[in-house]
Amino acid sequence: MSSNHQTLALLLDAVLQSWGSQPRLQYCNTADHPTKSGIGGMLCAAMGIHKGSPQESEFLQAFSDFRMITVAVGGQNANTLIDFQVARGGIKSERDDKGGLVYNKNAVLSHRFYLANQKFGVFLVGPQNWLTKLKSALENPVWGFWYGRKCCIPSCPPVIGIFDNTKDAWLEFCKKQPIDCSGQHRTIDPSASYPISDDINITNQESSFQNIQMDVPVSFGKQGSSSEGRVKTYRTVYLRNGNLLDCQRDCPPHQSPCQS
Question: What residues contact 54, with CB distance under 8 A and at least 6 apart?
Fold first, then answer.
């Protein structure tokens, strides 16, 4: 990253979150971590950027070069819920005699997955001028935003601050003690280990250890959202004291950071 890049730290805390990554027909899943496309859409809403507008194109092009690190800090309280919803069967391709839309009369049962009681630290690494705009927008949003779906309302303001590097951002994030479902403040220990998702470019030699997702938003316009492929790591990687640990590389045999 360039020397003029800084880190915007966010706390995503909500009763429910849902970050769709690979929806299949009636199964609307959620990823284990926030997706880059989901965060991009949230930021567009906060800035009041219209879908398909030149401003959207400008921002998403810049956002594609941001590095995004997400850290799951929900602990043992976090779990996955499945909701069953019935919806009208959608619009058929043909039209009626008057040119109107024809709806499928058969109802469709959909399975929708949610992360319950999960909390994330999201660290966006990018140019300082963009981070300042995003911080201001999230503190005074033009439109409401949510964490994946409209029912996933934030439990608290998300902005922690802008920092010179991710390590400083992580240590300050840990001082922001979220309130758990019992109403008690819960301390985040910076020396403990937490699973992360890190949006990075990797070499061909490393590609066998990664998952490749279509997760760089290109447009949220009326013709449907579109994304490009983006490599995101899902290896056994943890964050401790602001440092990334690869279990295969950094840990002694039979000793994982999550066991200490």
Answer: none
What letter represents residue 248's amino acid? Q
Paired tokens of 189: 């220990």
CATH number of 5-74+117-259: 3.30.70.2660
Task: Output the DSSP codes for the chain.
Answer: --TTEEEEEEEEE-SEE---SS-BTTEE---SS--HHHHHHHHHHHHTPPTT-HHHHHHHHHHTT-EEEEEE--GGG-EEEEEEEEE---EEEEE-TTS-EEE--S-EEEEEEEEES-EEEEEEEEEHHHHHHHHHHHHS-SS---SSSTT---SS--EEEEESSHHHHHHHHHHS--B-TTS-B----TTS-EEEEEE----GGGGGG-EEEEEEEEE-STT--EEEEEEEE-SSEEEETTEEEEHHHHS-TT--GGG-
Judge contact between 208 and 223, C-beta under 8 A: no
Rounded distance between C-alpha atoms, residue 152 and residue 16, angstroms: 5
Q: State the pTM of this model.
A: 0.77
CA nearest 198: which of 188, 189, 210?
210
What residue type is assigned to position 104 of the chain? Answer: N
In Å, what is the CA distance from 235 to each residue of 69, 231, 245, 254?
Answer: 14, 12, 10, 16
Dump pLDDT digits (tens) for 132-181. Answer: 999 999 999 999 999 998 899 999 899 999 999 988 998 888 887 655 55
